[in-house]
Amino acid sequence: MRKIRAFVDKQGFFILLAVCIVVIVGSGIWAVTRGGAEEDLVTDGGRLSQSVEDAERTRVNSPLPGSNVLHPFARTAWLETLGCYGAHEAVDLSAAKGAQVVAARDGQVTAAYKDGRWGGVVELTHEGGLVTRYASLQWPVPVNLHDAVVAGQAIGTVGTAAVEASDGAHLHFEMLLDGSLVDPQRYGL
To answer: Which of 133, 154, 164, 169 is most buried, by CB atoms within 10 Å?
Structure first.
């Protein structure tokens, strides 16, 4: 027992490091192999990314027309500001600070608040179980709780977020379908 304890005391750091590496690599492999499979439909032996009905209820326009994707949706990604791997279940769109952000489709404001980590946040609820969330906005925003909005209506301007500070000004755009985060690029963004 004494020999085991002496070994662990001398090599404990390396054992813990090896366990952490195995967990991280295993999580990465699981995330890559799992991918976005839960969003695919299987019909007659073929794969369709979504049905026609789902496409209509989830189609979105860009909240920043003409912008480029800075960071895509990823189950596992390196988070520069935090210095670690984690989930990035959103799309970051590049834009200059102050650029106008618009509603991706008709809906109702179900949240509008300032968050210490995410800056200004606006959440819109749409028909068909769809929710869009816009973060890294400058505060205050021009919409209020329960406001009805139409696609293309200004709901804020691009700012920054503390949790993604290394990326500078950009829009952090999330999309939830029936309560689950999904990749906005799969739905017309």
So the answer is: 164
Percentage of the residues of the chain whose pLDDT score is greater than 70: 66
Three-point CA angle 76, 80, 82, nearest 5°: 85
Euclidean distance between CA atoms 181 and 53, whole angstroms: 19
Q: Answer yes or no: is pLDDT of 110 > 70.
A: yes
> Which amino acid is it at 149?
V
pLDDT score of 55: 60
CA gap 70, 95 in Å, rounded? 9
Q: What is each CA distance from 34 to 26, 90, 184, in whole angstroms?
A: 12, 17, 18
CA geometry: angle at 90 spanning 86 and 94, to 5°? 110
User: What's the token pair of residue 82?
Assistant: 């935090």
Sign of CA dihedral 95, 114, 131, 34: positive
What is residue 158's DSSP assignment?
B
Tell me the per-residue pLDDT of 22-48, one tens digit each, with 9 for 90 and over: 667 666 665 555 444 333 333 334 434
- As a whole number of angstroms, the distance between CA 135 and CA 161 comes to 8
